[in-house]
Design brief:
It is a single chain. By secondary structure, the protein is mainly alpha-helical. The chain has a domain at 57-104. It has four helices and two strands; from the N terminus they run ααααββ. Strands 1-2 form a two-stranded antiparallel ribbon.
Length: 104
């Protein structure tokens, strides 16, 4: 059997393994040092921003209150919340910011 010429990920879940295999086998591929920018949403958008490429405005939050604060700070009436590492719509939800009603 001939030595492999390349490795390819069959899905998003295989990107890290594929990247590490390519490096370990000395095959062409993306550098392991960029794994975060290939797999973590916060790092992906930061890399796009640093390159001057249009990117999604976002922030890493740990609670609904932090998400609400981000929306209010940025004048947003709705937001999409996703885990930092997930594929497709896994763990996805959308939220609408409602104005508080004052009690009389």
């Amino acid at each position: 059997m001939p030595d492999p010429a390349a490795v390819a990920a069959g899905s998003e879940a295989g990107v890290e393994l594929c990247t590490r295999l390519a490096e370990d086998l000395g095959l062409p591929g993306n550098p392991v040092q960029y794994l975060g920018a290939m797999t973590r949403k916060d790092e992906i958008h930061q890399a796009l921003k640093n390159a001057g490429i249009r990117h999604i405005r976002g922030e890493k939050v740990r609670s609904p209150g932090e998400a609400l604060d981000f929306c209010r700070k940025n004048g947003l009436s709705a937001a999409v919340v996703k885990p930092l590492q997930s594929a497709g719509s896994q763990g996805f939800f959308s939220a609408t910011v409602r104005k508080r009603r004052r009690r009389r």
